[in-house]
Amino acid sequence: MNISEEDKKQIVALQELLQKTCDALAGYKLVKEKATIGTLKEWLDQKMKRRAHFATELGDLIRKLDGTPVADVSALGLAHRGWIDLKSALNTNTDLALMEECLRGEETSLEEYQIQLSQVNFNAETKSVLYGQKESIQYAIQKIASIEDLLQ
Predict the structure, then answer these.
(1) pTM value?
(2) Closest of 138, 89, 90, 93 to residue 113, by C-alpha
(3) Percent of the chain at pLDDT above 70?
(4) Which of its termini does the chain have fewer beta carbons within 10 Å around, N or C?
(5) Rounded to the nearest 10 degrees, what angle do helices 94-119 and 38-64 cross at?
(6) What angle do CA 16, 13, 45 make, to 5 degrees?
(7) Whole-angstrom Cα distance, residue 138 to residue 7?
(8) Burial class (CB in 10 A: 0-12, 13-18, 19+), 10
(9) Among 61, 95, 76, which residue's Cα sits nearest to residue 23?
(10) Rounded distance, CA 89 to CA 104, Å?
């Protein structure tokens, strides 16, 4: 099958977002394992489920363009999770330190969505899905900030 150049650009951009989503999912899993407060663990579990749903949506969009989704983590994501391990081991307020890293990860994800949405001419369905995911990330950033306030 012959894939147009425009569709190829969309596939590459969606694959980048899928990789960031896999990084976020792995990060939330690690943070949940290290968190000490039960309600925080529940919130992190919800975030994991939401990111798993993002991954499914992104994979579906890639397949609709005749691409093959590759759900994998990045080297940068692996390094960030290593930093989370170290930071949580050295910090006396582990939950606060973990939420700071969640915030950093969400801000990185939001930036990636903004870049891809501004640089790639996505079809209407894809734009709708991506803007919905971006809004969810923006809400998570606001929620993390309020959780951090409670933990301080």
Answers:
(1) 0.85
(2) 138
(3) 84
(4) N
(5) 20
(6) 45
(7) 27
(8) buried
(9) 76
(10) 18
Domains of the chain from N-terminus onward: 5-151 (1.20.1260.10)
Residue 54: burial class (beta carbons within 10 Å; 0-12, 13-18, 19+): buried
Q: CB–CB of 59/15 below 8 Å?
A: no
- Give 1: exposed, middle or buried? Use CB within 10 Å, 0-12, 13-18, 19+: exposed
pLDDT in tens, the chain (152 residues): 688 999 999 999 999 999 989 888 888 888 888 888 888 899 899 999 999 999 999 999 999 999 999 876 555 555 544 555 555 554 555 788 888 888 988 999 999 999 999 999 999 999 999 999 999 999 999 998 888 777 76
